Predict the 3D structure of the following.
Amino acid sequence: MAPKKGDVTEEERQLLSVICKGTIQEAGILLGSKDVRVNFLDEHGMTPLMHAAYKGKLDMCKLLLQHGADVNCNEHEHGYTALMFAGLSGKKEIAWLMLEAGADPDVVNSVGRTAAQMAAFVGQHDCVTVINNFFPREKLDYYTKPQGLNKEPKLPAKLAGPLHKIITTTNLHPVKIVFLLKENPLLMEAGALKKCSTVLDLICEKCMKQKEMNEVLAMKMHYLSCVLQKCSGFLQNEEDKLDDFIKNLLKGRDPDCFPVFQEKFVRECIRKFPYPEATLLQQLVRSIAPVDVGSDPTSFSVLTQAITGQVGFIDAEFCTTCGEKGASKRCSVCKLVLYCDQTCQKLHWFTHKKVCKILKEKREKQDLEDAKEKKRQEKLKAKEQIKPDDQASQTDEESASPFSQSATEENKETKEASLPTVENADETCRSPTASESEE
């Protein structure tokens, strides 16, 4: 029998309080009580898991899930689920936890919004990225088993884990994907990458042909497949283990260090999408086609926005080498280019050194102009502050005596009588002419 809204015991109310302000130990003790149901509903239809997700309590969420919390319960008065509350809280770790526990990202609330749409509505773009990039491991494991008359699986079981990590990455920068490949020796073989690429193409096809078409996921799978195919080609022909591919992706043209090869590569990946009728493809083409190579927006930024759901790259710092968010290391010379760490800086130095000094000079010139503008603004502000003070003091002097007005007028008449006219003043000030001095 399903629990009724508001039918809550005293111990269950205590659990809600502990979720908000208590400890894991206290919650564990209460969940062990026979008077506490893990999926009870408060008066608004919220379960303890929903409360924990909304409060951003990751450990509480884990504990509740271990005790059998229903991750897809939507008895909330507005049809919210725990994943929706995780999106509203902005905690991407909790959103990921809910998805791994089986949360359905396609469920809609009473106004027809999914969890990703709700997170986007309140500006929690990191959660949008996590939800849009999630792919259940079970769906990938399907390809590790022989299907139909095939005796061999499409994907060796040992490759499922490493490939799943690539599929669920939220950083689609091609250099970052190469980094993920180099982390796992199992993927550093041309044959293994070809098998992974084939599986990605199959997933892409399935996303486009299923009843509820998923163009976003299909485009991501296609893009990843293109990157793996390119890496496979380099591994077949080169002995440098993808180092040449990384250099090609990072190499910038001389005037501004713009990575032309990377831009053209991403554009080619998009162009090769095998479903030309797809709405997403047409949107990408309309956004990228009119833009010259080297101008904004780049094809990578457009593609990332379409797949992850992020609105541009506002209020975030990204590594110049691998595109990782939250880069905090700056080039010590120009102080304009950002990196994750020294490894990324060293990889990028071969091309950055060509423009580093030029960027430094531009920065110093800009800093000087900004300093001048700041001083000018301060002077204007100071003048604006002085003027009201002068007017106030003048008003105070005039109003100091009841006879001030008449006294002022008398003084004015006296001065007018004693001072020379303009002509007299000119005569007094000018030097005599030659004829006058002779006379």
Remarks:
- The beta strands are 329-330, 338-339.
- The chain is about 60% helix and 0% strand.
- Residues 356-398 form the longest helix (43 residues).
